[in-house]
Amino acid sequence: MVIMESGTHDCVAGHSANSIIKFADDTTVVGRITDGDESEYRREIEQLSIWCQHNNLALNTSKNKELIVDFGRSRMGTHSPVYINGLMVERVKSFKFLGVHISEDLSWSENTNSIFKKARQCLYFLRRLRRVGLSRRTLSNFYRCTVESMLTGCIVAWFGNLSALERKRLQKVVNTAQSIIGSDLPSTGLFSLEHRRPRGDLTEVSKITR
Predict the structure, then answer these.
(1) What SS3 state is found at 23?
(2) In Å, how far are 20, 95, 119, 197 from 204, measured between CA atoms?
(3) CA–CA distance, 180 with 131 (Å, rounded to integer)
(4) Cα separation of 26 and 48, whole Å?
(5) CA-based angle 50:55:61, to the nearest 5?
(6) Residue 7 and residue 136: Cα distance in Å, rounded?
(7) Cβ–Cβ contacts within 10 Å for residue 198, how many?
(8) Which of 70, 81, 209, 210 has the most other CB atoms within 10 Å of its CB?
(9) Least confident window among 31-35, 121-125, 139-143, 178-182
(10) Are 190 and 174 contacting, i.e. CB atoms less than 8 angstroms apart?
(11) Cα angle vertex 182, ends 144, 142, to 5°?
């Protein structure tokens, strides 16, 4: 991380309404468009492309995606496409950012479905481990390292906006894991999602204030 930052320290947003988020080999440009003026956002993308050229980096336009979150009266059809090196960037309704599915309407249905499916698959291995006679403590540790880590990834960002039905779907995974382990939540150290989210909030606050 230090090496990456030392080589990209000058790759920063040139406009106050924009942000450039760098993570490993992924770079995300976030622009806030006011009164339909996209000029600063588009210039930011152009400057990023120029920066990459000057630093011998190639932008693969076929892998670039653009997501527009627009709660105004205008919709996606009114926004002109973005071009990089003469090629049009694909506009999508959702994409995966650091493991989280973000949708244009900021709903979390796709993210919830993805988490639910992956977590349910891990329950199969939890059942197999129980059948071979592993202790409840070991089963609990396996749950926390696999299922719970999936259920709580970036939970402070999306859990508060879930519908009641989506919360029940995810909580059902926790309840099923509890049934497989054969112990109540307090004695196995497992947390329901309702209690896990504020716990995550406190963890983030603790990191910031240190």
Answers:
(1) strand
(2) 22, 24, 24, 11
(3) 10
(4) 13
(5) 55
(6) 48
(7) 11
(8) 70
(9) 31-35
(10) yes
(11) 20
Q: What are the counts of helices (DSSP H) followed by strands (DSSP E) for the chain?
A: 9, 8
How do strand 90-92 and strand 65-67 relate by DSSP bridges? parallel
Question: Residue for token digits 């307090």?
Answer: 186
End-to-end CA distance of the chain: 20
> Cα–Cα distance between 127 and 143 in angstroms, integer?
11
Q: Using an 8 Å Cβ cutoff, are 66 and 82 in contact?
A: yes
Q: Do 178 and 185 contact (CB within 8 A), yes or no?
A: yes
User: What's the chain's length in residues?
Assistant: 210
Q: What is the DSSP string of 76-101?
A: GGGSPPPEETTEEPEEESEEEETTEE
Q: What is the DSSP string of 132-154?
A: TT--HHHHHHHHIIIIIHHHTTT
Range 80-83 contact pairs with CB under 8 angstroms and sequence separation of 24 or more: 80/38, 82/42, 82/45
Q: Angle, nearest 10°, between helix axes 164-181 and 136-143?
A: 150
Can you tell me which residue has the tokens 């339909």? 36
Domain ranges of the chain: 2-92, 109-209
32, amino acid identity? R
DSSP 189: T
Residue type, position 65, single letter: K
Q: What is the mean pLDDT of residues 189-207?
A: 53
Instruction: Report d(CA 12, CA 80) in Å as an integer.
Output: 24
